[in-house]
Design goal:
Strand order of the largest sheet: 5-9-8-7-6
Largest sheet: 5 strands, antiparallel
Structural class: alpha+beta
Shape: globular
Distance between the termini: 29 Å
Length: 427
């Protein structure tokens, strides 16, 4: 529940801890803002506090061009209020509603469409369709502001199927055509080879500790961590490429550079990076809770902003977990490198041995002789069984399925027990 007095005090002090936790819709201007907006603070009677940008748009308010609601951190409260809503939001982030409908989304979640709409109205303040539309138009605005992509490329990257729909959506949200939003920028000549985005988060962020964890487990050929920078190969809608993540300055953000062989939708990719670095976490609440424990208090004080490292890809993580059974972390890393070298495919583009291959797809590993990399037959069989389940769609590892059901499905596969399923669930 949003307490108006508390929200207004956060707005008056521009408290960054509340950035993304709610938005301020101003009745006198018809605009909605982040609580850190530098504009003059409106009178309290003119403020309507809503839980999401989608709720503000559904109420008829336009996004602020000054504080840029599209650049706000995610809203962790959504996932905490309803597991079904959290799973639905992850599916929407992956683009399920870009081509499908709410009935199909509800079917994937195992609930009725009316019940799903009721849950969204209760926890998000907007319909699933409105959330998807807001997500697309705000991401398009982010691309307009932060890149030199042409408007056609912005439309494609934001998930629009036509430039006409893109133009109509932006005009409807901002009251002006897309080109007018970029009047202070000069687009580069031709299609740039890479683009850079800034992903904000709530500070503090123990970025060095996250990098140390990822570096020790980096899959040779796929991932690399050096000089305070995380790099890896990626595949977006079948388009190969690479991404680089490093810490930016102010405001607190990670700088993500994406280089793809050709244009592709990028909304889901941003979600993957945010999950990998746990950017939706609320470190102030987490640290305060853990600091109450006498054993953990000194760790929290020494390392504020610790996060749980996520996974860029669920299947890749599950394979890595099987490779790590009964061996050291370094041993699992060696095996993962052999797997990628033998069954992965080369990533076109820059010649860099550290990030030169794509992780094998489930369809490839489902019939591969994984024993050839030095694995025991049982563990090789477990990887093939996992790959078959993912390739067939019987097992979904994108965070959208019920957690207990996913763990049970993993443990039903040969060679996967509670330790492996729990590790996959944690990340």
């Amino acid at each position: 529940m949003l307490e108006p007095d508390l929200c207004y005090r956060a707005l008056q002090t521009r408290d960054r801890r509340f950035d993304g936790r709610f938005f301020v819709a101003v009745r006198s201007t018809g605009v909605f803002c982040r609580p850190i907006c530098p504009a003059r603070t409106p009178r309290s009677e003119n403020c309507l506090f809503v839980a999401s940008a989608a709720a503000a748009r559904e109420a008829g308010f336009r996004p602020c061009l000054r504080c840029r609601p599209e650049a706000a951190p995610g809203t962790p409260a959504w996932a905490g209020t309803s597991a079904t809503v959290g799973r639905a939001l992850r599916l929407i982030d992956s683009g399920v509603l870009d081509e499908g409908d709410v009935d199909a989304l509800a079917a994937r979640l195992g609930v009725g469409s009316r019940h799903l709409r009721r849950l969204f109205a209760q926890h998000v303040g907007a319909s699933p369709r409105s959330v998807a539309q807001t997500r697309r138009v705000l991401f398009a605005k982010k691309l307009i502001d932060e890149t030199d992509l042409s408007m056609v490329e912005v439309a494609l990257a934001a998930g629009y199927t036509s430039v006409r729909r893109f133009n109509a959506a932006v005009r409807g949200a901002y009251g002006r055509p897309p080109r007018d939003l970029r009047r202070r920028r000069s687009a580069g000549a031709g299609r740039p080879s890479e683009l850079t985005l800034h992903l904000t988060y709530r500070p503090p962020l123990a970025f060095d500790e996250l990098l140390a964890f990822l570096a020790f487990r980096a899959i040779p050929g796929v991932e690399s961590v050096e000089a305070g920078c995380y790099r890896r190969t990626i595949e977006v809608d079948g388009v190969p490429g690479r991404l680089t993540v490093r810490q930016a300055g102010k405001p607190p953000a990670l700088t993500v550079t994406v280089a793809l062989a050709e244009p592709a939708p990028l909304v889901a990719l941003v979600g993957q990076v945010r999950r990998l670095f746990d950017l939706e976490a609320d470190p102030a609440s987490i640290d305060a809770h853990l600091a109450a424990d006498p054993i953990l208090a000194h760790v929290v004080a020494a390392h504020p902003g610790l996060r749980v490292p996520g996974a860029f890809d669920g299947f890749e993580l599950a394979v890595r977990a099987i490779l790590g059974q009964q061996v050291s972390v370094r041993g699992a890393t060696t095996l993962a490198g052999r797997l990628v070298e033998r069954f992965g495919t080369p990533c076109p583009g820059e010649s860099d041995a550290a990030v030169s291959r794509l992780f094998p797809r489930p369809e490839r590993l489902a019939r591969a002789r994984v024993e050839a990399i030095g694995l025991p037959a049982a563990r090789a069989g477990a990887i093939r069984a996992l790959a078959r389940a993912v390739a067939s769609g019987d097992l979904v590892l994108d965070g959208s399925a019920d957690l207990d059901e996913t763990c049970a499905a993993l443990e039903a596969l040969p060679g996967i027990g509670p330790w492996t399923s729990a590790y996959v669930a944690m990340r």
